[in-house]
Amino acid sequence: MKYKFIELEIKNYIAEVTLARVESLNALSLEFASEIADVFRKLGAMDEVRAIILTSKARIFCAGLDLKEAAGGFNGTAKSVIESVERSQPLFDCCNAIEECPKPVIAAIHSRCIGGGLDIISACDIRLCSENASFCLKEAAIGFVADMGVLQRLPLIVGQGFARQMAYTAAEYPAREVEKMGLVNAVYKDKDALMAAAKKLAAEIAQNAPLAIRCTKEVLNYSRYANVKDGMAAAIQKNMVLMTSDDLKEAVTAFIEKRPPDFKGK
Questions:
Q1: Spatial distance between the Cα atoms of 198 and 188, rounded to a whole number of angstroms
Q2: 136-145, pLDDT tens digit by residue?
Q3: What b/e readout covers 152-190, taking b as 16+ CB neighbours within 10 angstroms?
Q4: Which of 88, 100, 4, 12 is nearest to 48 (CA)?
Q5: Are strands 14-19 and 6-11 parallel, antiparallel or unpaired?
Q6: Using N-to-C axis directions, what is the helix angle for 89-100 and 30-44, rounded to 10°?
Q7: pTM over 0.90
Q8: What is the pLDDT, as a whole number, of residue 81?
Q9: Helix axes 150-158 and 160-169, enclosed angle (nearest 10)
Q10: Domain extents for the chain?
């Protein structure tokens, strides 16, 4: 799994995905977005991965959409508009691939997270950031509507009021303010402390039963768009399968033997 703009490390069931289009401050080009989608799809299918940390090697987390590339080939005709939307599919796919990845994804954000970067972290399960982080839904300031899923996902995280405020103002919101909104779970003093916390959280997730974590994420994702009764039915169906798993048997055995369980994801 070699990529042009992504660095990947897998250790102790934790995958660390580092966005590394450094010179462009991780501006989202089509090639870059395609790599993001690909790595999350592949990690989702790997038994040796139980949790994923998404971070950045650039001096900021993400500068948003690569506007130079986005403007290329557009001449104002209906045909060029349709072709532009079709070419943009990797941008939509990268966020969907993160959300649909069966492994929990922790975004570890430092410095500025702009536009498409906010789309990406909104597709993650959990968000942590450093004190110097700031967040901006920039599209309204440059004449666009955000269309990579943030207008659908962000209100489910921070509520309609804060999501609309961020979208309408296109302002940058500091770490402590978005923490109050609920966009991030915690704020850390610097990037080192941030990464230490992200790794600790990923390790806590990785020690649990992988099939149960996967099914829990699927039920959580489904339940955002379902009523309580249908969400509960989905959870019951998952448990009917999990009752036959080796991991459940191991959990019972470990409890009786008074030792930590050794889950295999089977």
A1: 10
A2: 999 999 888 8
A3: bbbbebbeeebbeebbeebeebebeebbebebbeebbee
A4: 12
A5: antiparallel
A6: 20
A7: yes
A8: 65
A9: 130
A10: 6-206, 210-256
How far, in Å, CA of 125 to CA of 121, rounded?
8
Distance of CA 176 to CAs 55, 56, 133, 182, 202, Å? 19, 20, 9, 10, 23
Predicted local confidence at residue 249, as pLDDT = 87
Question: What's the topology of domain 6-206?
Answer: 2-enoyl-CoA Hydratase; Chain A, domain 1 (3.90.226)
For strand 51-56 and strand 105-109, is the pairing parallel, antiparallel, or unpaired?
parallel
pLDDT digits (tens, 9 = 90+) for 93-138: 999 999 999 999 999 999 999 999 999 999 999 999 999 999 999 9
Confidence (pLDDT) at 252: 84
CB 94 within 8 A of CB 36: yes
Question: What CA–CA distance (Å, rounded) separates 38 from 168?
Answer: 32
* % of the chain at pLDDT higher than 70: 94
